[in-house]
Structures are given as structure tokens and as C-alpha cells.
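One record is given unchanged without comment:
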Amino acid sequence: MALLEIKKFPAPVLAQPAQPVTVFDDRLRALVESMVQTMYAAPGIGLAAPQVGVSSRIVVVDVDHENPGRRLFKLVNPVLLEFEGVLSWEEGCLSVADFSAEVRRAARVRVRALTPEQEEVVVEAEGLLAVALQHEIDHIEGKLFIDRISRLKRDLYRRKVAKLSRQRADHEGRRRVS
């Protein structure tokens, strides 16, 4: 398995709904395994295919830091079936560099998906696992957690990213001229 490059905001693939998976083969299983390794190496607790530049409805989630792999979910074409309650959680994202914010989400969720082996699973979750599942399902819908915060905070982050991008471009330009 290879580690994959994690796309950063404002990469266009992060803002587009992903396509459903229709072919379940060795290529799919290899992609999922590479996503798992990339998530652990980052380190993160979840990763969606669009975050590695693949417009497919695939997510991997593991919120158990003490026992990596014990509660690992590899979900293909996940669908949020039910949700209830409300909680606020400080979220960050591997695709949203150096920023976190409190996000309101459902406290409990029920998700139906297929495994890479095409077996149907239903995941019932609460707390951090519920948050992580909703966060990753947002990714395959073309949404980032910053789309769920106030416009003011979101605009501040976007301006920060634009400024850093300009500074990098200026720095690169100076290096080429020298």
C-alpha cells in the first residue's frame, strides 16, 4: 500500500459531490487500504476518498487511538439513515490546515454502507464516532467542516489561506529570479 497525498483546501475535488462506487474489485480494496495507511500516518481519525483526489464515495474511520484497527470502519457508499440529538465538537481536518472550530452535529447516527467486499453493514454511533462519520460523509457530499461554521470564521480562514498562498507564490518567484 502506498501513502497518498492529502489534498488541501481549496482543492476543487473537496467541493464536489463524489460519485457512487459501482465496481468492487482489487483496485477498490487497494485504494481503501492506502487510505487507511494514509489516515494513520497523517495522523487522523478519518479520511474520505475526495481528500486523496479520488471522487468516490469511500470513507475510512478509526477513533480508537489506543487500539488502531480494532474499530476500523471501511465504508463504501455510506448513507446517513438516522440522526438524533445535538452536540458540539471541536473539529479539525486533514484537508483544512492549521484550523479547528466548534461544529454542531447530531449526537447519535445510524449509517448504512457496503464494505469493500460488498457486504452491507449498519453502524450505530454516538459521540466522537458519530462526529467522525458525519464529517467524512460531508466530504463525499463536497462539504468541509468550515462550511458548517459561521460565515465570519469561514471568511477569516479563507483569507488566511489566500494570504499564505500569495506569500508562497512570492517566495517561489524570488527563488526563481535569484
User: Anything to note?
Assistant: The longest helix spans residues 151-177. The chain has a mean pLDDT of 94. The chain has one domain: 12-149.
